[in-house]
Each structure stands twice: as structure tokens, then as C-alpha cells.
């Protein structure tokens, strides 16, 4: 239940943040002119499908080609914290990818949950 609530918060925050980023990002106009996906710092559906629960954050960011934007941070049950990050999607300006990372003391952050809206 706790994880679902966090995942829902991460996605809601991701959608809000991504809409703001799309409207204000310096590269937003370039995305409309057909500049390649890597220059737009967005996540494609195939990239999204590649990332799996437990994957280190560095590997996720390498696959996505972007580190996104941190949106939320909560204390995790049993210590550490859960951090949510938002990523733009390549399919539209309204969609978003939300990912929560579990950060335990002395360990590398790993993917805890992911969700996406491909509007």
C-alpha cells in the first residue's frame, strides 16, 4: 500500500513537472522541429521497457539518456529514503515517466517502481 501511494504521487508529480518542463525548456522548440530524441532528453517506449525493478540508477539513466528531474523524496520504511524522478516522454508533451528509486544507507540507489503515461 505504501509503495502504491508513493508510485501514484511520483506519477502525479512527474506529469505536473514534465508539463512545466516542456513549456519552459530551452530545447522545447527544437523538439518540435524534429531534432533527434537524444537532444530532447526524453524516454522512448523501448527504453522504458528495458529498465527493471532493482536496476541501479546509473544504468537507468544510461538507458534513458537523461537523469530526469527529482520531484519527491520520502523516508523509506526500515531506513533510507525513496526518491521520485520525472522524465519527459518522446511521444508527446503531455505524457510522462515517473520512477521511484530506493536509497538505502551505504548502497547504490535502485529502481523500486516505474509508471508511465504515453499521451
Kindly list the characteristics that best describe this protein:
alpha+beta, 119 residues, five-stranded mixed beta sheet, globular
Structural commentary:
With 119 residues, the protein is an alpha+beta fold. The protein has one domain (2-117): Beta-lactamase Inhibitory Protein, Chain:B, domain 1 (2-Layer Sandwich), CATH 3.30.1450.10. 39% of the residues lie in helices and 29% in strands. The chain is built from five helices and five strands. Strands 1, 2, 3, 4 and 5 form a five-stranded mixed sheet that branches. A hairpin with a 6-residue loop joins β4 (96-103) and β5. The model is unreliable at 18-35 (pLDDT under 50).
How do the helices and strands line up, and which of them pair or pack?
Blueprint: H1 2-24, H2 28-32, H3 37-40, E1 42-43, H4 45-50, H5 57-64, E2 69-75, E3 81-89, E4 96-103, E5 110-117
Parallel strand pairs: 1-3
Antiparallel strand pairs: 2-3, 3-4, 4-5
Order of helices and strands: HHHEHHEEEE
Mean pLDDT: 79
Helix content: 25-40%
Strand content: 25-35%
How many domain regions? 1
Give the helix/strand class: alpha+beta
**Separation, N- and C-terminal Cα atoms:** 26 Å
Please state the overall shape, judged from the principal axes of the Cα atoms.
globular
Please tell me the CATH architecture by its name: 2-Layer Sandwich
Contiguous uncertain segments of 5+ residues: 18-35
Please report the first level of CATH classification, the CATH class: Alpha Beta
Question: Count of DSSP helices?
Answer: 5
Task: Give the radius of gyration.
Answer: 14 Å
CATH topology heading: Beta-lactamase Inhibitory Protein, Chain:B, domain 1
**Biggest sheet: strands, sense, closure?**
5 strands, mixed
Count of extended strands: 5
Amino acid at each position: 500500500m505504501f509503495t502504491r501511494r508513493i508510485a501514484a504521487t511520483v506519477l502525479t508529480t512527474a506529469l505536473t513537472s514534465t508539463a512545466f518542463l516542456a513549456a519552459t525548456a530551452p530545447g522545447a522548440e527544437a523538439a518540435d522541429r524534429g531534432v533527434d530524441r537524444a537532444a530532447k532528453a526524453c524516454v522512448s517506449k523501448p527504453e522504458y521497457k528495458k529498465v527493471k525493478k532493482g536496476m541501479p540508477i546509473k544504468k537507468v539513466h544510461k538507458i534513458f539518456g537523461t537523469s530526469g528531474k527529482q520531484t519527491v523524496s520520502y523516508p523509506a520504511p526500515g531506513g533510507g529514503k525513496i526518491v521520485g524522478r520525472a522524465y519527459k516522454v518522446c511521444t508527446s508533451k503531455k505524457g510522462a515517466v515517473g520512477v521511484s528509486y530506493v536509497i538505502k544507507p551505504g548502497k547504490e540507489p535502485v529502481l523500486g517502481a516505474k509508471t508511465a503515461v504515453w499521451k
